[in-house]
Design brief:
The complex is a heterodimer of chains A (about 290) and B (about 700). Chain A has about 290 residues and is of the alpha/beta class. Chain A is built from twelve helices and nine strands. Chain A has a nine-stranded parallel beta sheet with strand order 5-4-3-2-1-9-8-7-6. In chain A, helix 9 links the parallel strand 7 and strand 8. The chains are: A alpha/beta (about 290), B alpha/beta (about 700).
Chain lengths: ~290, ~700
């Protein structure tokens, strides 16, 4: 049942927002400059809520264009060991979904495009409409939903329409043309193309399949296609940035804030320094792509 | 003057101005020449969907300007392409900025019925609608007295038009009914906050005769409201702003039509034949896109197999020759006596002996079925998760038999509790991976299996061990398990000359053995069905795996399906606890969630202590040692007996599904009852082979 309906100040239900997409505006600008976007991922609350805000700001200041702020989840089935460990640390250190809007503001204030990546149950439990409202109010641009396919997204499509938020769905190398069409049709902002079959994590080599997937997704009607999963070096970022509208990096950035045991947090000052350096290295790779 | 009065007065004035140009007599001649109206009623109710009346709407008094709509005909065609069943065209010009000119264009553009929506209060307006080819008009009860309402309704019906009669209150609905309305529009928005109020809808729509078509008329914006209304029993919906202002009008209508079809498909009967993806509001596919291809493939192959007699022949052969089916149905008179002593009712109790299957549990039923599908799909590798180890053993077994590569994920805590099963799986050639992430129990094993599957989906089948997960697993696993209930029915008849059981009891973790035992009886109201969850230390303790008791589970998406879920205030999965690894799971199969909500199955729980007492009771009265999981059903049978007694039964026939045998649990039981010294217990725990650790 509808648990909450958004209303206008006069008490009328909100209509379709028609607010221009912040993400699409970014891609339009970059296309004119013939450059791909650099999208960096970091879980909110990692290694703890305060430091995570500094880390998000650091990423934007050192060259990330849009930030994918992850919401830590107890059962992250699309994530590999690095992000699992980071999420667990965040949860242990008191991460709460209420705080993520602060992170969204932080990114927006630093000049980045704030995106949130969340497993669906967290948003569902918070209340889809309520999340959309709070996210919009915080200056959020869009939501990446790794375990929500458009077919199940009725409530989110409605809420995102009312609040003018981007809906970023995923495609994977074995998605059929029909699936690509469904995703492209329901997406707003960009399509997230997984570079390969599998969970998040750093990889030494990238296969050639992402390029084909980007092509196929564009043919299916997507305006903007970004590639993520497995991109961890400047060289890979360059390679991907040559054909994709954006390069998404997660684990490699997260890694800088993890200690060598891959379980605990690194010393904060040192971690942020490494994060800044890694961000710059990757940003350079993205800039050199074309 | 109310807004409605003002709108009516304006509409009457405008109609009078038109009448001065075209008198009624001329209008009647035009009406005679107009093409015959389409019978809109035939478009407004269907078994497999919720018809959508999409509205051409530029503005409204409450929301002001909405959309310019320079080309109403084009918009109507877009609605039609999206699957709209009818078009509503506003012709009121003052506040809604509509016109009869719009109407003519729309009517000419589409093949579906078109509704003239205006403030119609006199004959002229009705004739005018018909003269313009309207199939369908709106009458607003609040704007009409009884006599006029009846008169206009009769006139419209004489002209073969359908009338949508708009109501807001119970009293207006009664007036509409008395006047002979066949299609009633119900406005169930809460006038205070303008939210769709489903309870108000239910209250208003209650007692309406079945032949009256109920149209939810207000506040439908998108899939959310449509779903709410559809679940509350609306036959059709009228949507304005949500489609008129959408960027893609066709897609907006399409989404609504799909949402309606989904609701209808989710509630089909008979219950025993109901298939996913949706069971009521539960089920679905909440998984990464990367798995959709594999799930589609699995569904296709499974549907082909289901229709292939050779597949059933091969499955039946293996069930008989390899598994040892049928499993017996054993009468338990000494245990029945125990129920009599404790509850004061004298039942006949029968045990369905899934414990006597090869590998000692019901899990072999679906493991075998899925393994045959793996062969059919041409895949070579199988992964599985396991809690108690029974599903892992069953999977390892069928993989050995069919020559498939097998890897089983098991939470570290479970692996320690069930060390002997770990050894069994290894003996059978499977690789056992001990999962050390998360809570290190069943759910974490499933997460790890899902990660493996996402990575290796081209060659690998995920042999899921219960009726949870994304579609088609809940339907498919149930189909492979329903043999349990079918045999119960047959054996009661053939062996004991009993027509039907009065009760079936089963334990519910994910719910595979329970649904298997119950499926054959879901549509037989004479059979009371009882499911028992793992009560652990009791729901209040926070250490349990009870999803259905008040204050425990909430709605959520978990590991692929929407169902009841034990979760924190933040939506994080809660730690669960039970003495039985096989019931220690945070969610429950979506079909069970549905059967719970519609009241077909009574769900209750048995605590660790109750289950262990029952474990001993059955062992010592019948010489049958059940799995601790099954012991929850045995413990539950006392509660079921009490319930049956309260319902007036004196000699009920109770069937308990003994889903597995208890040999694997002897270390736990020995410790629990003090048959083993601490030293011996400790020694048993370390005998367990350690798995390959996964970070």
């Amino acid at each position: 049942m509808t648990n909450e309906t958004a209303t206008t100040p006069s008490g009328q239900p909100l209509g379709i927002s028609h607010k221009p997409s912040a993400t699409e505006a970014m891609f339009t600008k970059f296309k004119a400059e013939n450059r791909p976007a650099f999208i960096g991922y970091l879980p909110y609350g990692f290694p703890n809520p305060d430091v995570s805000l500094d880390a998000l700001r650091t990423m934007v200041e050192h060259g990330v264009d849009a930030v994918e702020i992850g919401l830590p989840y107890s059962d992250p089935v699309m994530d590999g060991p690095v992000i699992q460990a980071a999420s667990q640390l965040a949860l242990n250190n008191g991460e709460s979904i209420n705080g993520v809007f602060k992170a969204v503001e932080t990114v927006a204030n630093a000049g980045g495009v704030p995106l949130v990546m969340s497993y669906w149950n967290l948003v569902f439990h918070y209340g889809v409409e309520r999340f959309a409202r709070d996210f919009e109010n915080a200056g959020g641009a869009g939501l990446i939903t790794p375990d929500l396919i458009p077919d199940e997204a009725g409530e989110w499509i409605e809420a995102s329409d009312r609040h003018g938020l981007d809906r970023i769905f995923l495609v994977s190398p074995d998605s059929s043309d029909k699936r690509l069409e469904i995703v492209a049709k329901n997406t707003r902002g960009f399509v997230y193309a997984a570079s390969r079959m599998g969970v998040t994590g750093e990889r030494d080599t990238l296969s050639t399949s992402p390029e084909q997937l980007v092509q196929r997704t564009r043919q299916a009607g997507a305006e903007n296609v970004c590639v993520g999963i497995g991109v961890s070096t400047a060289e890979q970022a360059s390679k991907v940035g040559a054909y994709a509208d954006g390069v998404i990096v997660g684990s490699a950035l997260v890694h800088t804030l993890l200690a060598d045991d891959n379980v605990t947090a690194r010393d904060t000052a040192e971690g942020l320094k490494l994060l800044a350096a890694k961000t710059e290295e990757l940003a350079q790779g993205v800039r050199d792509a074309r | 003057m109310s807004v409605l009065d003002e709108l009516v007065a304006g509409a009457v004035e405008d109609a009078a101005a038109r009448e001065a140009l075209v008198p009624l007599a001329e209008l009647k001649e035009q009406a005679a020449k107009a093409p015959a109206p389409l019978d809109a009623k035939r478009w407004l109710k269907r078994a497999d969907g919720i018809p959508v009346i999409a509205e051409i709407k530029r503005a409204s008094p409450s929301k002001g300007h909405l959309s310019d709509i320079p080309d109403p005909a084009g918009l109507a065609r877009e609605y039609e392409a999206g699957g709209a069943s009818a078009i509503s065209c506003l012709t009121e010009g003052r506040r809604f900025l509509g016109s009869l000119d719009d109407f003519d264009k729309v009517k000419a553009a589409v093949k579906i019925p078109v509704l003239r929506k205006d403030f119609i209060v006199n004959d002229y307006q009705v004739w005018e609608a018909r003269a313009h080819g309207a199939d369908f008009i709106l009458l607003i009860v609040a704007a009409l007295d009884d006599a006029t309402l009846k008169h206009l309704l009769d006139l419209a019906h004489e002209l073969k038009m359908t009338v949508l009669v708009e109501t807001h209150t119970r009293e207006e609905i009664e007036r509409a009914e008395r006047a002979g309305a066949k299609v009633i529009g119900i406005n169930a928005r809460n006038l205070k906050d303008l939210k769709v109020d489903v309870n108000k809808y239910l209250e208003l729509a209650a007692d309406l005769p079945a032949d009256v078509i109920k149209v939810a008329e207000s506040g439908v914006f998108g899939a959310v409201e449509l779903t709410d209304y559809a679940r509350a029993g609306a036959d059709a919906v009228l949507v304005g702003e949500g489609v008129a202002t959408a960027d893609d009008h066709t897609l907006a209508v399409e989404r609504l039509v799909k949402a309606g079809a989904q609701v209808k498909a989710s509630e089909t009967t008979p219950l025993s034949e109901h298939d996913g993806p949706y069971f009521g509001q539960y089920g679905g596919r909440y998984v990464p896109e990367a798995l959709i291809h594999a799930l589609d493939e699995l569904e296709t192959v499974y549907n082909e197999a289901k229709a292939d007699p050779e597949f059933h022949k091969e499955l039946a052969r293996l069930q008989k020759q390899y598994v040892g089916r049928q499993s017996p149905l054993t009468e338990a008179p000494r245990f029945a006596k125990l129920i009599e002593e404790r509850v004061g009712i004298s039942p006949r109790v029968f045990l369905k002996r899934e414990d006597l299957n090869h590998t000692g549990a019901h899990k072999i039923n679906h493991a075998l079925g899925q393994a045959l599908l793996v062969k059919r799909m041409g895949k070579t590798r199988v992964i599985a998760e396991t809690g108690a180890g029974q599903h892992g053993v069953a999977t390892a077994t069928v993989c050995a038999m069919l020559g498939l590569k097998c890897r089983v994920y098991m939470g570290q805590i479970d692996a320690r509790r069930q060390a002997l099963n770990v050894a069994r799986m290894r003996m059978l050639g499977a690789e056992v991976v001990e999962v050390t992430t998360g809570d290190r129990i069943l759910k974490d094993a499933i997460n790890e299996a899902l990660r493996d599957w996402v990575t290796n989906v081209a060659t690998t089948h995920y042999l899921l061990g219960t009726v949870c997960g994304p579609h088609p697993y809940p339907s498919m696993v149930r189909d492979f398990q329903k043999v349990i209930g079918e045999e119960i029915k047959e054996q009661l008849n053939d062996w004991y000359h009993i027509d039907h059981p009065d009760a079936v009891c089963a334990c519910v973790g994910g719910g595979s053995n329970a649904i298997g035992a119950m499926n054959a009886f879901l549509d037989d109201e004479r059979v009371n069905l009882y499911g028992y969850e793992a009560g652990g230390h009791g729901p209040e303790s926070g250490e349990h795996a009870v999803r259905f008791a008040p204050g425990t589970g909430q709605l959520g998406m978990f590991q692929g399906a929407k169902s009841y879920l034990l979760e924190t205030d933040e939506g994080q999965t809660k730690d669960t606890y039970s003495i039985s690894a096989g019931l220690d799971y945070a969610s429950v199969g979506p079909e069970h969630a549905w059967l719970h909500d519609i009241g077909r199955v009574t769900y209750d729980y048995a605590t660790d202590e109750e289950a262990m007492n029952a474990f001993r009771d059955l062992s010592q009265t019948e010489g049958i040692i059940p799995a601790i999981e099954s012991a929850h059903a045995v413990a539950g049978s006392f509660k079921a007996a009490a319930d049956l007694k309260a319902k007036g039964y004196e000699h009920p026939v109770i069937v308990i599904n003994i889903s597995g045998r208890g040999d694997k649990d002897m270390a736990t039981a020995g410790k629990w009852f003090g048959y083993l010294t601490d030293e011996q217990s400790a020694a048993l725990e370390v005998t367990g082979a350690r798995g390959t650790e996964v970070a």
